[in-house]
Amino acid sequence: MTKKFWITEQPLSINEVVERVSRREAGAINTFIGTVREFTHGKRTLHLEYQAYRSMAEKKLEQIGAEIAEKWPSAETAIAHRIGSLKIEEIAVVIAVSTPHRSEAFEASRYAIERIKEIVPIWKKEHWEDGEEWIGNQKGTKEYVNGVPDKEEK
Amino acid sequence: MTKKFWITEQPLSINEVVERVSRREAGAINTFIGTVREFTHGKRTLHLEYQAYRSMAEKKLEQIGAEIAEKWPSAETAIAHRIGSLKIEEIAVVIAVSTPHRSEAFEASRYAIERIKEIVPIWKKEHWEDGEEWIGNQKGTKEYVNGVPDKEEK
Fold it and tell me: Which top CATH class is A5-43+53-123?
């Protein structure tokens, strides 16, 4: 079976993620694409560096897929997250959710990105114009001063 | 300038629509993809035929883009709708909305598909397993017995 939840260092293809959820029973596919934004609160980003506990991150993406299948039984989900060094405008994450009807596709896709920010162990280093900084967890609520979470957070 | 709102008889490429809204200021892109579903209320579709008042349909897609720009000033929108004969699982419509932050991308993309169903003069003929039927407008609230709207609806 083709993987539906994966972490990669390669550039992401939207089509490749969509293909994994497209099917005859679906009439709607929602995708969410997260890209590297140049400015955050007026500060210019030059590029971003994502790191992950890779096997754990893939397990957590699978968990999100299972949560969606429970909440929206007719949904099929695929998620790919890139790690490594990303330039401005490059794609960091692609979520695709297919459903028979459109409401569920929007809801489940939204749920997926919020859960990714909450539970997937991927963190990023911002390379600003005037320096660099480890941003900590994805919600920005924790700072990882050494670039990685403390052991108890793994 | 590249067109951001268009009707075509050619297969749609998700990437091509996304590329028209991707930009350095955006951190989020939401896409909605409408595909041809095999079963509707238990009835099997063999293929679908879409027709449109082409120039009017493109104008209405542009209007939806303008409405979005007014409601969500930071959003960029592109929409492509295919017409002609489509097989099961083929893509009928692709909407892409980019925004700096994700909430607006979801909201505006949802708004776009609802407005397409409301105001864009595209109608479809369902080729069922046991016959064929003009479905009328996209909300299914009006039947076009001759396959096209009456004059006053144009």
Answer: alpha beta
